[in-house]
Write a structure and sequence with these properties.
CATH topology of the largest domain: Arc Repressor Mutant, subunit A
Number of domains: 2
CATH class of the largest domain: Mainly Alpha
Radius of gyration: 18 Å
Strand order of the largest sheet: 1-2
Number of strands: 2
CATH architecture of the largest domain: Orthogonal Bundle
Helix content: 55-70%
Number of helices: 8
Order of helices and strands: HHHHHHHEEH
């Protein structure tokens, strides 16, 4: 009986954390198994307003321009660092939340705003696991960036933004994996 109560508390606590970070209740439902009714009430209790409606984010929208592709690449870099190899095949909610918090803190520290919200981040993690999003290494500057599998000619967002010449000296290339 006690473990049942603790499990329920943990589930509701996880749902609260995700809702406070801005995740849509429909997505929180996938992680927690809580009913839409419970999540709608929880959202209203936290924010005093109804939950947002609308379609879920997709990686196609997120990677549509160089700035967003750069942000997506940064998030995925953090996610692979924190979650390790298992993130390619399974979803670890704790690694995901830690990654999102790390991304948000890093971006706010340098730019005072974030480009990706938690719903964008979820779409990236989902699509990485589904193999519709992949990481590529730029042959010009050496960084890893993300693009959709069905967009094989998408260019490195950094090189496209700063117009790097076709050959960058080896000493100036990124060396991180």
């Amino acid at each position: 009986m006690t473990s049942n109560i603790l499990a329920r508390y943990t589930t509701i606590s996880t749902a609260e954390q995700l809702l406070r970070r801005g995740m849509r209740p429909k997505t929180v439902e996938l992680f927690t198994g809580l009913s839409r009714y419970v999540l709608t009430r929880l959202h209203h209790e936290i924010f005093g307003a109804s939950a947002p409606c609308g379609r879920s984010k997709t990686s196609r929208i997120i990677t549509r321009n160089n700035a967003m592709r750069s942000e997506a690449s940064l998030f995925i870099k953090f996610y692979l660092y924190i979650g390790g190899d298992p993130v390619w095949t399974e979803f670890d909610i704790d690694a995901f939340v830690r990654t999102y918090d790390m991304y948000r803190d890093a971006v706010k520290k340098f730019r005072n705003r974030e480009h990706l919200d938690i719903n964008h981040a979820w779409a990236l993690a989902r699509d990485l696991r589904a193999n519709t999003l992949r990481r590529r290494k730029c042959h010009q500057c050496g960084i890893h960036y993300v693009n959709l599998v069905d967009e094989p000619h998408a260019k490195c967002p950094i090189c496209a933004t700063i117009n790097l010449p076709a050959r960058v000296p080896e000493s100036l290339r990124a060396t991180a994996p």
